[in-house]
Amino acid sequence: MRQQLSSFLSLFGSFSTLICCALPSVLVTLGAGAVMASLVSTMPWLVWVSRHKVWFFLAAGLLIALNFALVYRPHGKVACAVGSGHACEEARRWNTVVLWVSVAFYGFGFFMTYLALPLREWLGL
């Protein structure tokens, strides 16, 4: 149960970094500034989230690190509350998939938030 909760929270946290920080950058880069303005007027909480993006990235990073610790700990310490070993392996497989999707979301959000503009300026584009 703890591992599933950690997987869900890390996916939610990394997805929130996408919504707060990567989505506006991508929309403006693609020339969809009007869409971004419409999103902000429809969902004003996006402004608050983007103002506190450092905390969102820290929280999401910690949740992903916790999920790594739970998913990749030695098999000898894993206790399965379900009756069959097959169900444990299937749950572990799904948790691993959710973990790596979370890492991809987090990485893309981090790149668009903190690295895309400096890289663009460094390349002279």
What features would you describe in this structure?
The chain has helices at residues 2-29, 33-42, 45-51, 53-71, 85-123. By secondary structure, it is an all-alpha fold. It is built from five helices and no strands. Helix 1 (2-29) packs across helix 4. It has one domain.
Give the mean pLDDT: 78
Report on the biggest sheet: none
Number of helical segments? Answer: 5
Order of helices and strands: HHHHH
How many domains comprise the coordinates?
Answer: 1
Q: Which radius of gyration do the C-alpha atoms yield? A: 18 Å
Report the helical percentage: over 70%
Shape descriptor reads elongated
How many E strands? 0
- Distance, first to last CA: 48 Å
SSE class: mainly alpha
What share of residues are in beta strands?
Answer: under 5%
Q: List segments where confidence is low: pLDDT < 50 over at least 5 consecutive residues.
A: none
